[in-house]
Amino acid sequence: MFSWVSKDGRRKNEPELFETVADGLRKLYNQKLLPLEETYRFHDFHSPALEDADFHNKPMVLLVGQYSTGKTTFIRHLMEQDFPGMRIGPEPTTDSFIAVMHGPVEGVVPGNALVVDPKKPFRKLSAFGNAFLNRFMCAQLPNPVLESISIIDTPGILSGEKQRISRGYDFAAVLEWFAERVDRIILLFDAHKLDISDEFSEVIKALKNHEDKIRVVLNKADQIETQQLMRVYGALMWSLGKIINTPEVVRVYIGSFWSHPLLIPDNRKLFEAEEQDLFKDIQSLPRNAALRKLNDLIKRARLAKVHAYIISALKNDIAKLMVMVRQEESQMTTQVVKGGAFEGTTNGPFGHGYGEGAGEGIDDVEWVVGKDKPTYDEIFYTLSPVNGKITGASAKKEMVKSKLPNTVLGKIWKLADVDRDGFLDDEEFALANHLIKVKLEGHELPADLPPHLIPPSKRRGE
Hints:
The protein is α/β, with parallel strands linked by helices. It contains 17 helices and ten strands. The strands form two sheets. Strands 3-4-2-5-1-6-7-8 form an eight-stranded mixed sheet, sandwiched between helices. Strands 9-10 form a two-stranded antiparallel sheet.
């Protein structure tokens, strides 16, 4: 029965060489842990066997929450781009599990085709049947954020009479399957809808073995006053305390995670600080992915109830891999999530910012900003320009009056400071105000400044 142990004992007493931590973990699992799991039929009672894709896939972020809490909008805010299959609305709209992943061409892969792809870590999901696979898809698109992470959007958790309708598959079991394999679980709550339904409570309990991965987001917090927000935060912590039975206080991020102006800007600085903390947590996932996989493999070994056998066999190899983890981390200091809403962290005085699309005046002979420039000039000269230019601090005082988030204003600064000197002249200031107007009218900002928006004095050859 323990033939796998005897085979291991005949191995040469030479150190095993691993090219990467992921490759080392895969070999350790296949050679040592998998035979033990098969012997004790571990896969029938707990979790399916791991495959190569589980060790080499990108870090994944799982979004969970009741309907209309902003899960899909949160994903769009991170990427600043629509994705195939995206549906946003006040009632339950996302009725499928959508794996948002990087791909060279935008498109959708349905669930039945997805679970037979050996390069994707979803093959074992076929065990949940056609009722689930018909509600599962992969949205692929060439987005820079997805080059570092993948995001799993989930159906809105139901409440009231809606939760009594059977989904046709074990919703909580599917979420538990994902929770075991993702790097971060984000629970989203609506500041106006804190009731935890029976289905939501069941889901949170299914995640009880992965508290270290859970982060809580109190979304749409800009829609309530400060005094109400304090009460809402306390009520949320009380509700979570009854379900998540841990001595530690769960981390809750408060804010409004979309790129629209804040409805009540009183807590602007708090929301910005919370957003930056959450962004840093997500950005660290690629750098910590190897350590997370190592941690999950150790937890899996303990769940297989072979602590004495597995730990004794892996002790030396794990120590070598731990050294390699630190070595790889030191070589990956610059590997963070890039693009989308994260790009604004170094743009001028405002921090993050990213956007797309402003085509007004593209065919005009005259500079489209020029028609409103006299109005902008009046404001410009009240800011006491020196040598025809104003500083970033002076520009910021005026631009924040738009109530746009710093992520958006940072992108506008980057686009408007055409000559990259850290100041704005009258044309650049007019351009900045034009871009603010574009955003307030509901349009997206361009990733790069289009030629027709470049101020006349900054154009080459003129």
